């Protein structure tokens, strides 16, 4: 698959998830997904081998009871850090939305970068949507990004 074919497939896959409801620990289009499930399923839908976090089930308020950044740790471990200016479609972007309300400083949210400052994600109480990284809320809470090693392997294979 060429870069342009991957980008087209990624955007198409992201659109198929648009409007799916949020469901904590959800992993099915028919029932709902959380942000981690969406990341995993969108990337898998594009043919990338991605592990589902660390395999542990999380309580909805896990971040209130632990100082560990464990929710996204499994995804972070599967990629290499990339600068915001170097984002490429398929990169996984991370956020600390608690910073907006003075809450937790942990990474508790993520999505898949689609290009042109757009990313697909799912927030508690809402549906899967495509948002703009330039929006103030995402600019403030942006915590970084990783390029999945599976994406690097795919791009090197066709280079």
What's the topology here?
Elements: H1 3-17, E1 27-28, E2 32-33, H2 35-45, H3 73-76, E3 79-81, E4 92-95, E5 109-115, E6 118-121, E7 129-132, H4 136-141, E8 142-148, H5 149-158
Antiparallel strand pairs: 1-2, 3-8, 4-5, 4-8, 5-6, 6-7
Helix pairs in contact: 1-2
Offer a few descriptive terms.
159 residues; alpha+beta; endopeptidase fold (from Nostoc punctiforme); 6-stranded antiparallel β-sheet; two-stranded antiparallel ribbon; 5 helices; 8 strands; 29% helix; 21% strand; globular
Gross morphology is globular
CATH class: Alpha Beta
Which fold name fills CATH's third level, the topology? Answer: endopeptidase fold (from Nostoc punctiforme)
Poorly predicted segments: none
Summing up helix and strand content along with how strands pair, one would put the structural category as: alpha+beta
* Overall tally of structural domains: 1
Taken as a percent bin, the fraction of beta residues is: 15-25%
Q: What strand line-up does the widest sheet have?
A: 3-8-4-5-6-7
Mean pLDDT: 86
Relative helix content: 25-40%
Q: Helix and strand succession? A: HEEHHEEEEEHEH
The CATH architecture can be given as Alpha-Beta Complex
Q: Give the terminus-to-terminus CA distance.
A: 10 Å
In DSSP terms (H or I, runs of 4 or more residues), the helix count works out at 5
């Amino acid at each position: 698959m060429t870069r342009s074919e991957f980008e087209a497939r990624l955007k198409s896959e992201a659109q198929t998830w648009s409007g799916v409801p949020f469901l904590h620990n959800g992993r099915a289009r028919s029932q709902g997904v959380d942000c981690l499930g969406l990341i995993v399923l969108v990337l898998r839908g594009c043919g990338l081998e991605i592990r589902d976090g660390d395999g542990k089930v999380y309580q909805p308020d896990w971040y209130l009871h632990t100082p560990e950044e464990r929710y996204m740790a499994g995804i972070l471990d599967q990629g290499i850090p990339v600068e915001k200016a170097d984002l490429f479609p398929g990169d996984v972007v991370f956020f600390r939305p608690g910073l907006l309300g003075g809450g937790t400083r942990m990474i508790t949210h993520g999505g898949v970068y689609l290009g042109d400052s757009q990313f697909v994600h799912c927030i508690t109480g809402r549906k899967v949507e495509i948002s703009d990284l330039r929006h103030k809320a995402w600019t403030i809470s942006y915590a970084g990004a990783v390029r999945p090693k599976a994406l690097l392997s795919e791009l090197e294979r066709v280079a």
